[in-house]
Amino acid sequence: MNVLILDMVHGGEILAEEYLKKGCAVDCVDVYGIAKQDTMDCLDRMGASVHRSVPSGHYDLLLMPVHCPDKFLNGVTYGERKTFHKAVGELSDGRSRVEVTGVKGKTSCCYLLAGILALDGRTVFLHTSRGQGPWNGGKHTIEKKMSIAPPSLLRLPGGYDTVIAEVSLGGSGRADLTILTNLAEDYGIAAGTGKASDAKASVFSEGKNIVSESEIGLWSKYRGDLIGYGGRVSVIGKPEIGKPLQIAIEYNGRHELELPGKYLHLQYIETIEAVLEACFEMDIPTEQVIDGLKTFEGVPGRGELRHSDMGWEIIDRNPGISHMSVNKMLDTLGRMGLLTETLMILDPADRKICEKTDPERIKRMTEEKGAEFRLAGDGNEQSAGRYITVRLIKEGYQ
């Protein structure tokens, strides 16, 4: 069987290796022209035919990511076509795995769940856009950086009680439990020929599938036995930046507790809701859940708080920065009455990140809500009278 694989940036090289092991003839194409030369050289040594442009001809099987547009297929015919995530589902069993996808909140969801499961005595391996490695002593030990595209699921280790994997567009459809954090906006993919919802719904498996209660109507067309999250958390009193937050949770009864003041709590409420539902479905004892929340310090670089004589600095460093995430940040600061004291600084996206930012749209949105906006590197990143500085740094692995 001859196989054509498009896109060597989002895990195509992993699929190439798997199909070469099956004895297939494999052609690999770096359609975006940004794959590392080491990757292409390695594929060549393994016996694949590597290309920088798509060779015309007929193939028994075509493999490409769900977000890859058909414009690359001129002169190509094929007998069967599969997305990367479908191929991964056929090659992976998914046992002892939790897969997390969605538009926002994926990484924080993975981290909070990992901490709680570890308190329950489980060994946990974490694979996220920040990197992958075991959860040890209440911390994530990052051993390797790699894409969170679906093919990376084929390179996750065994030997752990639970593997928690953040996935970008698509999923294996084989996990024991999946969490789809939210859609937020059903943006276009594959050069506008597809929708994010269709891709993200592929994460649903024969196991338990958790989605936002507010989005069950949207996702029910893909699957009918979904579990909705939401309504378990309530905020007590007025949130203040840098101070612990009092919340109440409904989890085998009502419990009041305090979240530490090291991160922007309101950004995490939806995450806490999703994780509480996952823990309930996994029968995690109440004591471990409460201890996990009380000791959780947020994800480094995701709503992280720092204080100096100049005021407060909020660090938001991740590949998912967009007008949607900035709008959520602005709404959070508005709820705390801080918008007129806020300066937003956007660091432009690097070329590894697929979803590009729209600085003009973000600037307009920020200023309409009463905050100030700057681009990083313009030589003027300080503003008199602004007590809150939010640094938006778009980087990471997708």
Structure in words:
The chain is α/β, with parallel strands linked by helices and 398 residues long. The strands form five sheets. The chain has an eight-stranded mixed beta sheet with strand order 9-8-7-10-6-11-14-15, with helices on one face. The chain is globular, with a radius of gyration of 22 Å. About 1% of the residues have low confidence.
Number of domains: 3
Q: The biggest beta sheet, please?
A: 8 strands, mixed
Tally of DSSP β-strands = 23
How much of the sequence is in beta strands? 25-35%
Taken from the alpha-carbon principal axes, the silhouette is globular
Query: How confident overall, as mean pLDDT?
Result: 89
Measured as a percent range, the helix fraction is 10-25%
Distance between the termini: 30 Å
Outline the low-pLDDT stretches. Answer: 189-193
Q: What's the architecture of the largest domain in CATH terms?
A: 3-Layer(aba) Sandwich
Radius of gyration: 22 Å
